[in-house]
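User: I'm putting together notes for a lab meeting next week and I want to include a structural view of one of the chains we've been expressing. I don't have a solved structure, so I'd like a prediction I can at least talk through. The sequence is below, exactly as it appears in our construct file.
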Amino acid sequence: MVEPKVAAYLAQLTTGGWRALEELRNAGVIRGLGCGINELGMIPRFLDLFDLDFFLIALQYTLAQQAALDAELPSCERRGAGVVIGGVFNSGILATGPIPGAKYDYEDATPAQRERVGRIEAVCRRHGVPPAAAALQFPLGHPCVASVIPGAVTPEQVAMNLRHFTHPIPADLWAELKAEHLLCADAPVPSS
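Assistant: Thanks for the context. Below is the predicted structure for the 192-residue chain, given as C-alpha cells.
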C-alpha cells in the first residue's frame, strides 16, 4: 500500500516531471535516469511506471542481507537497469565487526544481527579475508550491479577500502557462506 503522500508525488512525477527528464535524456543533455531506493517492493513499481536506467539501492543487497534478490534485482535484470549498491557495510557492522555499539541499518545492531555478522566474520577469518573485503566485493557478483558505495570519511578509510576492494577472495569463502546459510544459495558471487 502506497502512502497517500508518496502516491501524490508519483502522480506529480508522471504528469510532468518525468516527461521533462525523458526529453533531456532523449536530447542527450543527460545520459541516464535513476532513482535511489531503500524500501523493498518499490523497484518493480517504478519500472512499471518509468523507463529508468539505474537504481541506487541502500542496505538491501549486502553480505548481511540479500532481500533484493527476490524482486528488486530480477526486475532490474529483466529491464536492463543497472544497480549501484549503497550502504554496503549495513551502516558499519560489516566494517567494524559485531562490536558493542555496532550499527546495522542505521540503528544499534540487535544481538541476533551481531551473532550473524560474527558468524560471517568467522568464515572470513578461516579464509584469510577481511570481512570488509568480502562485504565490498560480494554485491559485484550480481550481473546488474555496476558499483558499490563504501563510504569513507578519512583518507585512511579510502586507502583501506581500496585494499579491501582488491583483496583476493577464494571461491571457497562464498561456498562456505552459502553452506552455513549466511548467504542466499542463489546469490551470484564474484568470480575468483
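A couple of points you could mention at the meeting. The mean pLDDT is 92. Helices lie at 4-26, 42-49, 72-79, 93-96, 111-126, 131-137, 155-166, 171-179.

User: Perfect, that's what I needed.
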